[in-house]
Amino acid sequence: MTTTWRPLPEELDRPPEELDLTDPPVPERRRTALLAASVLAIPVLAAAVSFGLPGTEAVPHPSAQIAPAPIDVGALGATGVAPGAWTPPPTPPAPIPAAAGPVDATGIPGRVLQAYRGAESALGTSAPSCRLPWTLVAAIGRVESDHAGGGAVSVDGRTLAPIRGPRLDGTGGHPFLVDTDAGRLDGDPGVDLAAGPMQFLPSSWQTYGADGDGDGAADVDDVDDAAVGSGRHLCAGGPDLSDPGQRAAAVFAYNRSDAYVAQVLAIEAAYAAGAPAPELPAPVSSAVPGVPTEPGPDALAIAPASPPATPAPAPSVARPAPTTAPTTTTPATTEPTPPVTTAPTPEDADPSPLFGAP
């Protein structure tokens, strides 16, 4: 801005050599006005810098553009989040409520009944010649876990709590089973346990486990998956389960116990007639009366060490016929010697092996 010097009125009569052309005087009023204008301009300029003028774009100062520090990829966790930036996960959602559903005339909770019918449908597609009835799967589910603990499952079919059989560690009359899954399925890294509502041993689940609900996982604690797995076990070997003899053989392969077979088939007949299952007797796999156990496939059925609460009639022992006639020296009034009843020998016991078909 160029400033043009103009003399003041009182300087018009003075000669030029007496005037100071380099520092023109400014009246006091003009100086005060300029000072006030400068003070007022400061906030306006500050606002313009802060918010920008219309049609302009703020450009940060070069010193404010600091390059980010390089990230050490090796310091990141598996999730790709730096350890220092980790924050606790959100509170997990509340458990899905049980979805037992209405109980029909058979006494089976609706959600579990859906799983049994799903197994019949699945095997009807994959093994139609097997003719698997849902009533047979349901009968096994009744014996093994009382239909997943009375229908204690979520809406997606998973049991609200894991169902596990007794530890098969050789105590309490149970067999000893070496661990085969490092506890991945049954939660016990020491020995194997039967797991899930259909009570599969880890080795059997590896063979017959199935994804019954199409969620991409074969879950032994899911009633849909376990029911289809049970159907696959029953249909192994290609039986026709509409034949009574083949049906009994398939159940025996599931749990090698004649008492178990009779129990399952009685319940299956009731379900087929639309009636509730009969009351269950003492667990057929209990080796010691009073010790609760859960029968499982692959045969946890063991001959009881002592008679059960409701023993079956003992086989009659034939009395050997006398080889000679009684001598006359025996008094006629003497009572005959009572026959000796012996305990069943191992040959008299059920020769069934302990474990079902692999």
Structure report:
With 358 residues, the protein is mostly helical. It has a domain at 110-272. It contains seven helices and no strands. Helix 3 packs antiparallel against helix 5 and helix 3 (134-151) crosses helix 7 (258-272). The longest helix has 24 residues, at 28-51. The radius of gyration is 45 Å and the shape is elongated. Mean pLDDT is 70; it is low at 48-53, 67-96 and 284-358.
Task: Write a concise synopsis of the structure shown.
The chain is an all-alpha fold and 358 residues long. The chain has a domain at 110-272. It is 29% helix and 0% strand.
Number of helical stretches of at least 4 residues? 7
Helix and strand sequence: HHHHHHH
User: What are the segments in which pLDDT stays under 50 over at least 5 consecutive residues?
Assistant: 48-53, 67-96, 284-358
In angstroms, what separates the terminal alpha carbons? 102 Å
Describe the largest sheet: none
Radius of gyration: 45 Å
Mean pLDDT: 70
Estimated helix fraction:
25-40%
What is the β-strand count?
Answer: 0
Which structural class should the secondary elements be placed in? mainly alpha
Net shape: elongated
Q: What percent of residues are in strands?
A: under 5%
The protein's oligomeric status is single chain
Region (Disordered): 1-26, 286-358
Biased composition (Low complexity): 286-304, 315-335
GO molecular function: peptidoglycan lytic transglycosylase activity
Protein name: Membrane-bound lytic murein transglycosylase B
